[in-house]
From TrEMBL:
PANTHER family referenced in this protein's UniProt entry, alphabetically: HYDROXYACYL-THIOESTER DEHYDRATASE TYPE 2, MITOCHONDRIAL, HYDROXYACYL-THIOESTER DEHYDRATASE TYPE 2, MITOCHONDRIAL-RELATED
Protein's name in the database: Uncharacterized protein
Gene Ontology terms, MF aspect: (3R)-hydroxyacyl-[acyl-carrier-protein] dehydratase activity
One Pfam family matching this protein: MaoC_dehydratas
Lineage, top ranks: Bacteria, Pseudomonadati, Pseudomonadota, Alphaproteobacteria, Hyphomicrobiales
Organism: Pseudorhodoplanes sinuspersici
InterPro entries in the record: HotDog_dom_sf, MaoC-like_dom, UPF0336/Enoyl-CoA_hydratase
Biological processes per GO annotation: fatty acid biosynthetic process
């Protein structure tokens, strides 16, 4: 097996307002809560929040980066639930844990099921996730 149950990996990222705005525009997410400090200040959040697409992209990229250091990898599916906002000026922690591994019918690849999460700077759950990736020596 190329992947093992219980395998854990994580990364911390510091978000910045400029990166949040740039990503939001690139993703064509023009919600002013991601782009306009004045609008965000008047909202329930009181300051800019990162687009959910940005948080999702970072979270989904982590397994690809992690597993590709030793094998080929492709994402199969991901599901996310947003619990708290991620602010455009905070450090977040992305975490994944492999919960199940099965071999493909050919035996040439592993399918890893994972549970993931994003913790905000206060250590609170901001995003909960599940995901599946396929890992093989050669895809």
């Amino acid at each position: 097996m190329r992947v093992h149950v219980g395998e854990k990996f994580s990364e911390s990222l510091t978000m910045t307002p400029e990166e949040a705005k740039t990503f939001s525009r690139a993703a064509r997410d023009f919600n002013p809560l991601h782009l306009d400090e004045i609008v965000a200040a008047g909202s329930r959040y009181k300051k800019l929040i990162v687009s959910g697409t940005q948080t999702a992209a970072h979270l989904m990229a982590l397994p690809a980066t992690y597993f590709s250091q030793r094998a080929d990898v492709v994402g199969l599916d991901f599901s996310l639930r947003f619990h708290k906002p991620v602010f455009a000026d905070e450090t977040i922690t992305l975490e994944w844990e492999v919960t199940e591994v099965t071999s493909t019918s050919s035996g040439k690849a592993d399918v890893a099921e994972m549970k993931g999460r994003v913790l905000n700077e206060a250590g609170e759950l901001a995003v909960a996730a599940t995901g599946r990736v396929m890992v093989a020596e050669k895809l």
